[in-house]
Amino acid sequence: xxxxxxxxxxxxxxxxxxxxxxxxxxxxxxxxxxxxxxxxxxxxxxxxxxxxxxxxxxxxxxxxxxxxxxxxxxxxxxxxxxxxxxxxxxxxxxxxxxxxxxxxxxxxxxxxxxxxxxxxxxxxxxxxxxxxxxxxxxxxxxxxxxxxxxxxxxxxxxxxxxxxxxxxxxxxxxxxxxxxxxxxxxxxxxxxxxxxxxxxxxxxxxxxxxxxxxxxxxxxxxxxxxxxxxxxxxxxxxxxxxxxxxxxxxxxxxxxxxxxxxxxxxxxxxxxxxxxxxxxxxxxxxxxxxxxxxxxxxxxxxxxxxxxxxxxxxxxxxxxxxxxxxxxxxxxxxxxxxxxxxxxxxxxxxxxxxxxxxxxxxxxxxxxxxxxxxxxxxxxxxxxxxxxxxxxxxxxxxxxxxxxxxxxxxxxxxxxxxxxxxxxxxxxxxxxxxxxxxxxxxxxxxxxxxxxxxxxxxxxxxxxxxxxxxxxxxxxxxxxxxx
Amino acid sequence: xxxxxxxxxxxxxxxxxxxxxxxxxxxxxxxxxxxxxxxxxxxxxxxxxxxxxxxxxxxxxxxxxxxxxxxxxxxxxxxxxxxxxxxxxxxxxxxxxxxxxxxxxxxxxxxxxxxxxxxxxxxxxxxxxxxxxxxxxxxxxxxxxxxxxxxxxxxxxxxxxxxxxxxxxxxxxxxxxxxxxxxxxxxxxxxxxxxxxxxxxxxxxxxxxxxxxxxxxxxxxxxxxxxxxxxxxxxxxxxxxxxxxxxxxxxxxxxxxxxxxxxxxxxxxxxxxxxxxxxxxxxxxxxxxxxxxxxxxxxxxxxxxxxxxxxxxxxxxxxxxxxxxxxxxxxxxxxxxxxxxxxxxxxxxxxxxxxxxxxxxxxxxxxxxxxxxxxxxxxxxxxxxxxxxxxxxxxxxxxxxxxxxxxxxxxxxxxxxxxxxxxxxxxxxxxxxxxxxxxxxxxxxxxxxxxxxxxxxxxxxxxxxxxxxxxxxxxxxxxxxxx
Lengths: 483, 483
Description:
Distance between the termini of chain A: 54 Å
Helix content of chain A: 40-55%
Largest interface: A-B, 60 and 60 residues
Number of helices of chain A: 17
Low-confidence stretches of chain A: 1-10
Oligomer: homodimer
Mean pLDDT of chain A: 89
Strand content of chain A: 5-15%
Structural class of chain A: alpha/beta
CATH architecture of the largest domain in chain A: 3-Layer(aba) Sandwich
Radius of gyration of chain A: 22 Å
CATH topology of the largest domain in chain A: Aspartate Aminotransferase, domain 2
Largest sheet of chain A: 8 strands, mixed
Number of strands of chain A: 15
């Protein structure tokens, strides 16, 4: 039976399938908090898999805080589980496009990041301790010396061929088959998305976005003189296809593009089912609205295999897939890319106009890392750490925040979206938290229409047990607002 | 008397003053082609300066192709001189703003650059042989390893403090006193100019530009939905202040900014007199029109000391000074900067929105080079080479191109602007030249209003005596068009 399941879920490894079955039993209540889970030996026999596979599965479930080992006694369902808050629900759609003006808050959150005195729950940046710093810096050095003249010369668009070849190869695991020529290197993923927005739109146009949406995108949309139409999204299903279809049918405005983060969405952290991705691509194709897909978190799946992208279902070149290595390797290297389908030539021109080219040495270093640096091994390591940290932080939120607080259960990435009781003001909490040395991203940043006043986004990448106290402080401040 | 002159021209070194006097005698016809110039010893006595100073002055004049040494005989005014074509004259002003649409030619010239089979007279890029490649790549390596975590992390705007400090220090030689906080690092000078244009304008606005103007700027202006108003400029005086004043007074359109390259203008190569810079700044201040000043060639003065920038006369923060290290150190590092006066905060926000930050390792490497790499020594070397190459290429143009061809005599940088007889089509020449393996930038790219049909811009940075043949080919093709 297990073998059969494995064939069905071809994207999973054996230990994940085993872990998934235990998790299912826990989540459905068959195994209840505090109960003992089957011993490694017995489960190994029962399922006909090796001892090591079960060990690996249990270790994974420990990381996810679903079970815990007790010395000389075996594995148990964690008692904390019932305290874990529910997932936030998403709002109803609003069909009127809104102009954005949250610039001041945005700049404050960005500035906070430069302040080393603050606990950094704010920007969604990875923990440098989890980046392969020394190896990357070594490769930066060796690749530049080897390339010599090339390293100081322009890597004119589309950018380093070696890097584009590596990206095209890896795209297979996203369900895409590109040639290197279909990839353009950008200075990070944000630049890729901005170039796409600029090429596709004219001032006054409307961009369909998920809500909540990564605040940088909202700022960009404002900056380009565009409007947003916020389509509700859930962490489980992604952008609501019903609401999207309704908006496409009924909106009076000229819609220039639809912008989504399909895997481990910022801020919701969910993973859109493949079927929804396919339907999303088809729906937009039908209305001739280009899809800008941001997959920057795709490689940070808590499962061992990363999910496919919506672009995998693109038959007409209508999807512009954007990503980068800023979450997995080196944000400071500023190396991202876009596979822009039928808009590739326009994007290439826009890139040249924006800054001629992306820096060459960092392209060479990333190319080297992808080809010989053990990127997959590195990903396996950090995925597991982030899975654990996200669970630990969610656990702490459950312990310290007011009753009725809800939190996402991300399947990848390292951020959490927290919905506190209605009476709590995220902006007030933000001000109070900064005064005691903590920064985070307040919910109102994630909407152009005044939503999420009682929500906050927390970065779990820097989680340490010592930081538990900072979550406790946030929880206490939130509790005080209720009084 | 010489001492007195030196005090007057405080920006010149002694040998430059000596060279200037001989050049004056040559240019005014006191010393005529083929005539012997005073011996080193006699001039040294006559002027009361050292033998070495005169030697250095003569060496400089040789580089500029004004004099030549004949073995066992002394120095002579070069016979070629009378063949050197005149400077091009500039057109009359046109007061109607024009929309730009030269995208196709622009892309072709950019693409040509990737073709190693073409003689590269096209883009204005420096000769990699003249870049301190190994030293830079070493510093890239050492600075990144030393900074370790910092090297892979965001250098969020305003960017690396170490680099901004170095830039602020060097700004003294441009006549400016900045604090490091007044400088924002960008991904090259083009990005700095684009950010300035974007922050200052709304679609439909007009930008006042010099004509001819660097074609990338025209493309950017088109891309932003802006119009240009072309103000005539000469290589000697820069943008015509009379025409500019007239335009400011009479144009109906909303003028968002004025954009100039004040030192060694691309394509004219001239150096605007300080007095004109002061008047330009005051005039624009009076009309409350911000000045975007591009100084990317400023460090490549053929004199030993670089000229000041217009920003030196800015009292109100109305000037946005843009530059980079792409012409002097490493185009591929993509490190530029902007000192945006009272627009600094807005530009900083625009930078974050465009691509979050500039790559960190290349910032660290350039900072290291500026502080310990001997940048001034490096500049002295390449200035002399470019001065010689520019003169040699101009000389070849004089030999091979049709009678009545005019060419600029740049005082810095490495490009030449060539005006051929009216009947010759630069676009036709461009097509023919590509077929025989030569690329250049055709004149029409440098105007939005159809000017410069008979002009071309040539890059002298790659000059070698062997390339003389390519100039001969261009000349022959041009001659053929006349038949």
